[in-house]
Each structure stands twice: as C-alpha cells, then as structure tokens.
Amino acid sequence: MPFLNWFILGSGQLVYGGTTYKNELIKVRYALNIIQRAHSLKRNKIIVCDDKSVDMNEKRIKGLITNKDFDDPHLIALVNVANCKVICTNDSRFHAYISIKQLYNKGVNIPSLYYNHTKHKQLLSKKMTGKGVVLSKKAQQVLMGLIKSKKRK
What we know:
mainly alpha, 5 strands
C-alpha cells in the first residue's frame, strides 16, 4: 500500500479540478469525501486547479484525439494545468495516450505512470510528485477500497 501511505501519512498531494473530474468524483462519493476532508484538514494535501483552465485544456485535447477509447482527456488537462509529474490510473486503454506529446502544453513534460504497484513506489518521492498526482476514476476506487479495508482492521 505504498500509495495510501504516501498520501495519508507522507507528503502526498492529489490534484483536483475541472468539471469532468469533479463529476467523476461524485460517482465515487467516498473518494470525494476523503478529498474534501483532506483539503479541509491539511491544505497541502490537495492541489485545487482552476476549473475553467482545466475545462479549456480538456476541450482542446478532445479536439486532437477522437478515438472513443480516449475517454479521460480531463486527466491530461489536469496534468497541463498543475504541471504535475505523475498520473495514477489502472485504465490500460489510457496508457496508450499518455505519451502523446501533442496533448501537453508547452513546458509540461509527459508524466510518469503509476498504476498502484509496489514496483512503482519510487514515483512517490517528493522529487517526482512535487506538484501532486492526478488520480483516474479507477485509481480512486482502488484507493477507497484500500482505505475501507484499513478501517476494518
């Protein structure tokens, strides 16, 4: 559970913003509650991005790729606005799109991909995550499952 420890106990920060991302979080209600609680308790746990900036970036990215498998342009839009270095997703369809340089704003590097495995825990260092991490809906669900199972123990 490196990710959970990094976020709850360590220096972990999550990136949050944009209409689509917020609507996805509503579907994973428990995730939204955790993010809101973390934001109210420790300001440095959640990086809130300007919704309009994320939405505008998402619209531009949608215009570049029309494949129906590419259904997470809002995640790359968050990377663009927050300039974060790591994106966390279990969606294997998304993995093919993360490395397309044209999707990123000038000056924004292609983020590293963390998909909740112990072998990727080096990506959770302060050097890699100084600007926070973007979580996909699937990654949010995994995180919430881990938090619930930890509470039961």
